[in-house]
Amino acid sequence: MDALRAIERRGEMRALLEQGLPLLERFPQAVPLLQMLGIAHARLREPAAAAALFARVTTVEPDNAAGHVNLGNSLRDLGRRDAAIRSYERAIAIDSGLAQAHFNLGTVLYDLGRSAEALSRFEAAIALRPDYAAAHAQRGDALVALSRAEEALGCYRRALDLAPDMARTHNNMGMALRLLGRHPEAIAAFGEALARQPGHDAARIRRAYLRARICDWDAMAEDAARLPALGIEGPPVPPFMMLALDDSPARHRLRADRHAAANFPRAAGVETVPARPVAPGERLRIGYFSADFHDHATMHLMARLFELHDRAGFEVHAFSYGPASDDPMRRRLLAAVEHFHDVRTLDDQAIAALARRAGIDVAVDLKGYTADTRSGLFAGRAAPVQIAYLGYPGTMGAPFIDYVVADRTVIPPDHLAHYSEAPIWLPHSYQATDDRRPIADRPPRRADVGLPEQGFVFASFNASYKITPDLFAIWMRLLDRVEGSVLWLLGDDADAAANLRGHARRHGIDPARLLFAAKLPVAEHLARQKLADLFLDSFVCNAHTTASDALWAGLPIVTRIGAGFAARVCASLLRAVGLPELVTDSAADYERLAFALATDRAALDAIRARLATQRATAPLFDSTAFARHIEAGYRAAHARRLAGLPPAPIEIEA
């Protein structure tokens, strides 16, 4: 019925235009008629035509505040946000009591990442209209963006008191609760969103992801049949969470394509930035963009690359839109790069413009579609060449990302159709590593970390959302078959730990054989991994930084190579460290190999000895060679752009 009514409304709007446009020819300055026809075009999603009519309103009546608001709305829909801001500001200057103008200005500022300014506008709208439910909800969104999620909850509750059926507000409240680590409450909020809007697929994915996060697999069964189609049928969805829920690079590509088209509809029409000829002796300017230039997994991998960049050939810039910090990883970055740009307060367009003024030749997006992404700045073309790297293990499906740094394991040649970007294939592994990562000098004893003094220790320090029921069943069979063995997992989520113990009990395994590691500083965490015997990888989404950690600490990993990028990372690392025999092709082979190593101490000790030796010589931890290889990739991509050639696969030789 809703769809039928929408069709009827469109028919009514079209009829209104057919009747009204001839009248407009007779009365070209009739403001009510201009407004009415402009609204008809707006409802028919014809913003250019609407904007033209509303502009005429503001010409005929320059002090018509509603006309400026309507014009701002159409300009916003056309992607002309700066012009929309001016229209809203003009409306407010005419009538400062117009709550709608304050609210609409706030929404544009929020979309541009100017959350502090947006917050003040939402508060102004609420002061004028205390019962303005949408303004309370958007105030909550701005507070979340400003890392004030606890305060945001009060805004969402007030909005829901006023308008309890707003699915969007329930969804956004769920996201705030998730940020606060209150996962069961977040799951309930996403459920409320779905109760009011069953087609809210983003809420469905977030609920499924959080259920995976707390290992509530029984509840996940509710959506299991629908998950593969999410983001492909129906509305676009955030692609990142599906990487851990669905190992299909073909579907990942479809989701990413649709997400990019919906969120950056005008990116394909953005004029490209001309490449700058780099004369002999001149340096290529590389810009790295991230919210994670602090004590974060990205920096633990990237820090050494920043230090090893060839200063004679490259001028390195870091554009940080994450939190300010003064931790050791941030200090390493500041010492390593020539130019550090704190762009937290700038919107996407301003960041892109700053990068262009700095003459960046190659922009490297270290976030992709992960948390705190600012993909919009690349949609506006920050540089002639734009490359996705490290943070997002998949395709972005975006016309503005030219290349993705990869290797032939994570993106084999027969998978190119699943990526909108051309790969830059590095010769060994795509993943940067730090050959100076400190490991605590004195590893603890087993008793110090709650491990039994005797018995085989299987470990998996992957995030809990990566554990799937089929994988867990294998682990339980291993515990059952290897007498005295235990499984050592991360203990960062009490709900996940409780659920995993319950699942173990169902498999007939004493829950006490599941041990959970408390959070420790990285150097200490690396040291304690030496106490484990064998790392068991996850399937749909492998260990990534976690795998690098384990191998650097000398802990062998058994993995199963999957289909998508995220499911092939550990295989890439094992091959690059010289242990390809630990890569299996099926769940059955994975289980057989893990059991064989757990029951053949001599074989496992030989592998551990090889890892200890090869750690110093294998390509995986040769940070200097890696720096030269990725620099060669940047040069090759820039050379193609300079020659007027479209992106195409680039292979870097060892």
Automatic annotation (TrEMBL):
UniProt keyword Cell cycle, yes or no: no
Gene3D superfamilies assigned: 3.40.50.11380, Glycogen Phosphorylase B, Tetratricopeptide repeat domain
Alphabetically ordered keywords of this record: Glycosyltransferase, Repeat, TPR repeat, Transferase
Pathway: Protein modification; protein glycosylation
Keyword Transcription regulation: no
PROSITE patterns with a match to the protein in the record: TPR (PS50005), TPR_REGION (PS50293)
MF (Gene Ontology): protein O-acetylglucosaminyltransferase activity
GO BP: any one term: protein O-linked glycosylation
InterPro entries noted in UniProt: OGT/SEC/SPY_C, TPR-like_helical_dom_sf, TPR_rpt
Listed EC numbers: 2.4.1.255
A Pfam match: TPR_11
Renumbered ranges of TPR repeats: 65-98, 99-132, 133-166, 167-200
Enzyme class at the top of the EC tree: transferase
Domain O-GlcNAc transferase C-terminal span(s) in chain numbering: 276-436, 446-628
SMART domains tied to this protein: TPR
UniProt similarity note: Belongs to the glycosyltransferase 41 family. O-GlcNAc transferase subfamily.
Protein name: protein O-GlcNAc transferase
UniProt organism field: Rhizorhabdus wittichii (strain DSM 6014 / CCUG 31198 / JCM 15750 / NBRC 105917 / EY 4224 / RW1)
